[in-house]
Amino acid sequence: MHPSPSQDRKLAQTRRGWFITVEGIDGAGKSSHIEAMAGALRGAGAEVLLTREPGGTPLAEQIRALLLHESMDAVAETLLAFAARRHHLQQVIVPALAAGTTVLCDRFTDATFAYQGAGRGVAWPMLEQLEAWVQGADTREAGEGQTAVPPWHAVVPPGGCLQPDCTLWFDVPPAVAAERLQQARTPDRFEAEARSFFERVAAGYARRAQQAPQRFVRIDAGAERAQVGAQVLEALRARGYLAPHGLPGH
Ligand SMILES: Nc1ncnc2c1ncn2[C@@H]1O[C@H](COP(=O)(O)OP(=O)(O)O)[C@@H](O)[C@H]1O
Ligand SMILES: Cc1cn([C@H]2C[C@H](O)[C@@H](COP(=O)(O)OP(=O)(O)O)O2)c(=O)[nH]c1=O
C-alpha cells in the first residue's frame, strides 16, 4: 500500500538510518561481537535493528533452513539467497532505514559473492546483475506508475542500488577459523566444506573489499577476542556511528 502524503512527508524529513553489515568466513567471530556492536550503537542513542541473512523474516528464515541443510546446485543456492534477500529488504530493511533506524545485518550480499561466487564458481557479472535487480528500487519497466513505491525511494535514489554504508569485514586465516569451529559446533552444509573452499571464499571477500574500499573496514579477526572487540568499536567510532544520535548524518 502507498503511504499517505503525510507519511511521505514524514519519511522525507527523517534522516535515513545507517545500514551496517558484518561479513567474514564461518568461524571469523562475527556472532561473538554483533550484540556488543548493537549495544554500542544503542548507547549512542540510535534505534537499532539487529538482523541476519539468509533470514530476517519468517519466509527468509525458511529459505535459510533450505540453504543450510538441503543439497542443491550453486545457481539454485544463489537464487534462493537473493530471493530471501529481496523479501528481507522489502519487509524489514528498507522500511527500517526509511524510518531512521540503524540496521545491523549479520551478512549481506558480499556473502553471496564470496560463497556462491568465489566459493562455488558462479560468475561475478551474473551476481552483479542480480545485486542491481534485487537491491534496486525500480524493478519494473519505466513508465507512469511503474516505479517502486516509497519507502524504497526514501533510501535509494531512482535507478540506484541499495548498498550498506559500511561493512565490517572480519578477516581471519581459514586455518584459524577452522580450528575455532572444530571446537564450537556441528557443521552445516557450508561449514562442512573443505579448507580450499574457505580459501576461495576468503579471496572472494578480499576481492569485494578491493572493489569498494570506502565501504569496507577490515578487522583483524585472527586477534584475541578483546582486541577484535576494540577494533570493532574503533571502526564504529571512526565512522561517526557512536556520535550522539540525531546529528545530521548523510
Ligand atoms: N578472537 C577469538 N579468538 C578465539 N576464539 C574466538 C574468537 N572469536 C570467536 N571465537 C570462538 O570461535 C567460534 C566461532 O565464533 P563465531 O562468533 O560463532 O563466528 P562466526 O559467527 O563468524 O561464524 C566460537 O566458538 C567463538 O567462541
Ligand atoms: C547471506 C549468505 C550466507 N551464506 C552462507 C554463509 C554461512 O555459511 C551460512 C550461514 O551464515 P551464518 O549466519 O554466519 O551461520 P552461523 O549462524 O552458523 O554463524 O550461509 C551463503 O552461502 N550465501 C549468502 O548469500
Overview of this protein structure:
- This protein is α/β, with parallel strands linked by helices and 250 residues long.
- It has a single domain, classed as Rossmann fold (3-Layer(aba) Sandwich).
- Helices cover 50% and strands 11% of the residues.
- A five-stranded parallel β-sheet has the order 2-3-1-4-5, with helices on both faces.
- Helix 2 (30-43) crosses helix 10, helix 3 (58-69) packs antiparallel against helix 4 (74-98) and helix 4 (74-98) runs parallel beside helix 6 (124-134).
- The longest helix is centred in the middle third of the chain and has 25 residues, at 74-98.
- It is globular, with a radius of gyration of 18 Å.
- It starts with a helix and ends in a 12-residue tail after the last helix.
- Bound molecules: adenosine-5'-diphosphate (ADP) and thymidine-5'-diphosphate.
- The site of adenosine-5'-diphosphate has 13 residues, from helix 2 and helix 10.
Question: What distinguishing features does this structure have?
Answer:
250 residues; alpha/beta; Rossmann fold; binds adenosine-5'-diphosphate; binds thymidine-5'-diphosphate
List the topology elements.
Elements: H1 5-13, E1 19-24, H2 30-43, E2 48-52, H3 58-69, H4 74-98, E3 102-106, H5 109-119, H6 124-134, H7 152-155, E4 166-171, H8 174-182, H9 195-211, E5 216-220, H10 225-238
Parallel strand pairs: 1-3, 1-4, 2-3, 4-5
Helix pairs in contact: 2-10, 3-4, 4-6, 5-9
The protein binds adenosine-5'-diphosphate and thymidine-5'-diphosphate.
Thymidine-5'-diphosphate is lined by residues 26, 31, 52-54, 81, 106-107, 111-112, 115-116, 188, 190-191.
